[in-house]
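## retry 2 of 3
previous attempt timed out at serialization; input unchanged, resubmitting
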Amino acid sequence: MKKIIFLTLAAVGFVSCEKDEKATVSTESANITAEVSATTFTLDKTKAGDNALTVSWNKTALNVATPVRYNVTLSYNGNSQSTELTTQTSTTLTVAALNTLCMKLGTTADAAASVELKANVVLGDKKIVASSAPKTLTITRYNQDFYIVGAASYVGWNANKAQQLYQQEDGVNYAIYTYLEKEQEFRFLGQQDWNPANYSLQELGVRDNYKYFKKYTNKYLQKGGAGNDGTIENIKFYGETGIYKININITDQSLTIEETTADYKPDHIYLVGDGVSGTPKWKIENPVEMTKTAEGIFETTVVLQPGAEFKFFGQKSWSGKQWGNFTKDVAGDTRYLAPKDNSNIKFNGDGSSQYKITVNVKAGTYTIVKQ
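## retry succeeded, writing output
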């Protein structure tokens, strides 16, 4: 059975009307009762589109022509986030929407956090004339993924192919080295689908439920153009076409774009390492030459020994183009490429089977598949 909590909105006296400084608003009629559908939540990424929390209230009438609207504010550790304004007498948050609000508040993933909730009566766009007494919700959010999609990106406007960013070891930074095209638009999704989670710039005109990035690289990024409904969804990229390091930090909700000199359409890719059939140990002058299958995509099939380590090069010499594992100092197998500050790719082959290795330097990824 769902627990129902009753919230009484407290009157705050007489408030000046936003449109008329001389007018006063009696808020005695703003006393309303609200209901909250639950107080404890363990959010599940696999149920992102399901409804999580519903807050409802009685209709409030005030003696002004200014429309009366409502929203809900969540607060944690000195930070606050509000839901979209509505003229309805209830608002419902999906699992994804509630999770995103908690991300914006700075709660830690996979840990229960005490979040304060208030329901508000609002005049105009932001004048709160009454708020409920605070109630505490206990919310455990999940790690949100970020996927890039759009004409500026390698995948185009194909949500089901949206490119996932690599979540780094600190758990708060997400990054990828990937292709971006000049004067094209993109945005981020929370899944390989258009809904429920979308992330864009926190700027005027951007759809309220898409607003996320408080800070971003102004040199390269601006809000995109308005759609048919007059709202903005996307981010427009103004750098030169090429490979960039994209980094998202969920602590300060920042988006940074770092320019690189990496080549996204090399003529050759060579595999060099240890524990790889067809090449002596780390002999750059005698590498495995990979086969080009498309722009920026190369593949080869080799036998890999246990603990095999290798990198990719654009020439038969140590200086020049190279790509390695995304982590900087410790060899590993993230399946993400880094053209600088990288480590060896380390993979435990069985010593006898063939493994197909595919490198996509345009997308910034690689795959290793046993044949």
